[in-house]
Amino acid sequence: MKSFSLHIAIFCLLISMGCSDQKKPDKNTITIGNKKKEKKVESTNSSSVPIMLDNKGIGPIKSVTFDEKINQDLADKGAQLFKSKCVACHKATQKFIGPPMVGIYEKRSPEWVMNMIMNPDEMLKKDPVAIALLKEYNNTIMLDQNISEDEARAMAEWFRTLTD
Q1: Which of 137, 20, 23 lies closest to 116 in space, CA to CA?
Q2: pLDDT digits (tens, 9 = 90+) for 71-101
Q3: Angle, helices 149-159/72-85, rounded to nearest 10 degrees
Q4: How many CB atoms sit inside 10 A of residue 27's CB?
């Protein structure tokens, strides 16, 4: 019984430890359709995790181009996948055990996001942003959910629909 209580206490402690939702100032670009849009990200970030839109991460995804219009069917599939595989550690619009997904493309490239979803073990060992996130989130590792490229792409599409 003491062991169970200790696990519950540790879990509650991890949940209650929060970090700032603010961002660092940076100029970046994101590709939507055939257009590259420059996006200025204004912030005062106390986080030690860098904003790196040019980092594609480590994994099979080398290039992602979003259509200008959101594919709602694909986004709906992504929302369902997120709810079934990710909500134990992530909330769409707020910090939890892991980072929120809202505004993710202001901080990370779509390739990085998909590689992190599909290849978290290697990313957490070798990618500087993933390593920084691991430290910021109290060394709570992201588990490999065996998500396919099509499933990761669906979730990536859904992330585009999220707003604060």
Answers
A1: 137
A2: 999 999 999 999 999 999 999 999 999 999 9
A3: 110
A4: 11
